[in-house]
Amino acid sequence: MTASVFFGCTFIAFGPAIALFLFTIAREPLRVIFLIAGAFFWLVSLLLSSLVWFISVQISNKESAAQQKGLLIFGVVLCVLLQETFRFAYYKLLKKANEGLLTLSQEETMPISIRQLAYVSGLGFGFMSGAFSVVNILADSVGPGTVGIHGDSQHYFLSSAFMTMAIILLHMFWGVVFFDACEKQRWWAVGAVVASHLVVSCLTFQNPEYVNSLVPTYVILLLMGVWAFYSAGGSLRNLKLCLTCKDKDFLLANHRPR
Amino acid sequence: MDLPSNKWIVHLLVCCFVVGVNCNSVDKKIYVKLNYTVSCVRLLNATHQIGCQSSLSGNVGVLHVLESEDNLDWVLSSGPNPPYMVILESPLFTRSVMMKLKSGSSRVAGVAVVAPNTNPAGAFSPHTTCPNENSGVYSETYDPAMANCNKTVWNPLGNGLSYEEFDFPIFSLKDDNDTQVIRQCYLDHNRAVNGSRPRYPLCAMQLYSLMFAVTDTATCMRRNDINLSINPEMVCDPLGDYNVWASTRPLNNTAKGHKMWESAVVAAARLDSRSFFFDIAPGAQSGVSGFVALLAAAHALRDVVQEAPPNRTILYTFFQGETFDYIGSSRMVYDMENNQFAVDLDNIHSVLEVGQVGLRNDSKLWLHTDPVSRRNDSVNKEVEDLIANLRLAATNLSVTPEVPTASQPLPPSSFQRFLRARPIPGVVLEDHQSAFTSRFYESMYDNAEYLNVSYPPNLTPEEQLRFVTESAKALTEVATLVARALYRQAGGAETQLVNINADSQTVTQMLYGFLVRTNNSWFQQLIPSDFMSHLTNRPPNLYVGAVQQSSEPTVLVQFLMANLTGSTVNVTQENCQNQREDENDKESRHMYIYMWVQGAVPPNSTQRQGFCVRSTARLSKAVSPAFDLREFTSKDYSTWTESRWKPISGRIFLVASHELEMLTLGVGVGVLLTSLLLTYVISAKADILFSSGREPTNATY
């Protein structure tokens, strides 16, 4: 296809992430640092899983299709587990770093709350994983052709872009839920995050039936979004207040010093 | 591969680790690369550019398989999805179709011609009707009546396509799986049923053949000299290679210029050919038949010129680049005039040229002469003698030499370049009386099949190599005639003539080597080991090519000439490769060429037994003097250059409709704007949204 497809897919995949970055992160140097650190942690997890994959492919029998399929499933599961492990490691690291920051800073409160950290690190994970999923496809979308000469669906680029958007947002929500669960030591919630990550990853085995993978993914995205909203301190009341524009009174009621 | 996911990521990384950049599975889902792509390339001369080219990023067009000439309407006016990439079956690759496409080139992205596996029944010659019109001897000053093929149109079937300029790429495809994929793709996606618009996605093709040079040789040679960077970017190269020459008596090649008491009979043939596409130039009739006959004649003369040497030397010359305004012969004549060659023009006694001799009707061979120089009595007498010698040589042979009408000019031949310098007596042997008999002059069909070099089925390559075909037998007769005539012309005794016989086995092996596959056991024995990698399982390309690239047939002919006329000498490999008989020998290199060839494998061994061949088969430069003189607008010498190009390739794929592309872009922009707006609102009201009693809202949110 052409440049229009390239830009269209880029905007779909990274539009929400870019907007979030611009309005909530770019202004705060500390958040930018934590975002990049999060992205780095995700990269390290990918490096480890690809090492394991590299070795296992060398060992496996390349002729046997069943074995290769099994290997692929194994690779996906391993990759998801490693990513979540690194999320936990990053959480631990941030806790330590936050304590250090607190002792350094002259102020009484922490310069960044653990909720904000959760959101920023989740977005960092999302950015990197989204980039790795879609950059190659985007590179090919600039060319004159579209997928389909071997009978595949021509909506490949579009659905890839939507999938990437979902994955980026999911990483963000997972980050919020995961960190909150760790804070409150609700291990079942951590398990739910890992499980939903596994489910979303395995849903892509449904491809090229894109509807079968995209629809459940977006359902999970919606659920995770609601959950993350509540874990981040949101509530139906707040939402109502916000929508009915009673925030002015609310502001006064909370007498925030500005 | 499927959608982006972790498995995809893992796969991508593995790909990068293991295979490198090429393992891009998305690319494979989109594109089918064409394996066999032969393009037409751009050539330039003093005034024109010819050939084809694509745009910088390759030309993309929707496939259209042209079924008949009427079908052109769809491409040129009525089709709804221009530009079109036109797939032509070879019967439609005609001048009228191509010119219509050329004139409507805003709707034509390119053309791919499907080359058939068997030759067509009709005629096809993309060359001009009057080959080398302006560079032969027949100019307005020489004889106005004969200029520009006024008397005889030599190639009446020529449609001149090779000399047209197209601003879209033209490729040749083999009729195989690739082409089947293209046809299927066309049928599945692009075929308009009952005149309705075909629905997207449509099947399309992209052809890359970007040419660097434009306008003419003077322009591109000037651009070659602009050195803006450390690595100068060349845009074009002169056409040229090497002539092969040998003599029956060794001539001192270090002392150039006139040789006292030396008188030479030149036996000439041309080495090259061309076709519309640069990579396929089999030239069976136009090139191979002539030089194989001359090689066989030289072989037949090997022993007799040692045992009963004639008075004169026979100088065998094989000219390269003759198709492009006589590059090889004009250079040799130029060198002779400027004392840059082992002999000069005063040493030349007469010329006997072997032209196209592969297709003889009624076993006749036509002796063409130049009527203008024969107006001089002394020249005329020499020519009459030469014709008499040829007639004498033909006794007891099944070949009958005949003389066409005396007023007919010479056909396109290297001898014309000698005549341009001075009136040397000479004869050109051809299989046609006036116009060419060849139906496929300078086309890709001028191949083994056209020359009737065919073998019974179920023969192994080794058996095919040894099998004496009828064409080989016929060509052997011609070779014998040439050999005997040369011997007589050089002043040899008439009694020796019966001992001169060309070997049909050698001829058939040469035909096999040059028309079927160069990689055969016989050629392998005759070449040095470092040339082995150049042998292939297909016939060599006789297109002369740019100077920098050595032309395969040239070197092969030199090796064959060395082996067929030279002698095996007992010299060590080291001395042989240093061009000497022994450690103290410093003189032999001026007279001989030594080659260490790899030889055959003895029956009870696995190692080849190499040996040293001493011969007079040398190479001499075949680059047009125009490039040495830097006269890029020369009217006397060939000015052909070949443009440089980016790698030539082609691929097919589907294209999506403009609507879908715009939809994607629109959705993308929509998503971006919505998320910008939403994020702005949420982040502005974050403190309300995410406020709970437990954690105090932070000023930073």
Q: Which labels suit this protein?
A:
heterodimer, A: 258 residues, mainly alpha, 9 helices, B: 701 residues, alpha/beta, Aminopeptidase, eight-stranded mixed β-sheet, 20 helices, 31% helix, elongated, disordered N terminus, disordered C terminus
Helix content of chain B: 25-40%
N-to-C terminal Cα separation of chain A, in Å?
51 Å
Quote the average pLDDT of chain B.
89
CATH-level-2 architecture of the domain at 263-528 in chain B: 3-Layer(aba) Sandwich
Biggest interface, residues from each chain: A-B, 85 and 68 residues
Q: What is the topology, as strand order, of the major beta sheet of chain B? A: 1-23-9-5-6-7-8-2
Provide an overview of this structure.
The complex is a heterodimer of chains A (258) and B (701). Chain A is mostly helical and 258 residues long. Chain A has one domain (1-232). Helices cover 80% and strands 0% of the residues of chain A. Chain A is built from 9 helices and no strands. The longest helix of chain A is centred in the first third of the chain and has 40 residues, at 65-104. Chain A is globular, with a radius of gyration of 20 Å. The N and C termini of chain A lie far apart (51 Å). In chain B, the strands form 4 sheets. An 8-stranded mixed β-sheet of chain B has the order 1-23-9-5-6-7-8-2. Chain B is built from 20 helices and 23 strands. By secondary structure, chain B is an alpha/beta fold. Among the domains of chain B are: 31-226 and 648-660, no CATH class; 263-528, Aminopeptidase (3-Layer(aba) Sandwich). Mean pLDDT of chain B is 89; it is low at 1-23 and 693-701. In chain B, α8 (327-337) runs parallel beside α10 (415-421), α9 crosses α12 and α12 (470-489) packs across α13. Classes of the chains: A mainly alpha (258), B alpha/beta (701). Chain B: Residues 39-213 form the Nicastrin small lobe domain. Chain B: The chain crosses the membrane at residues 662-682.
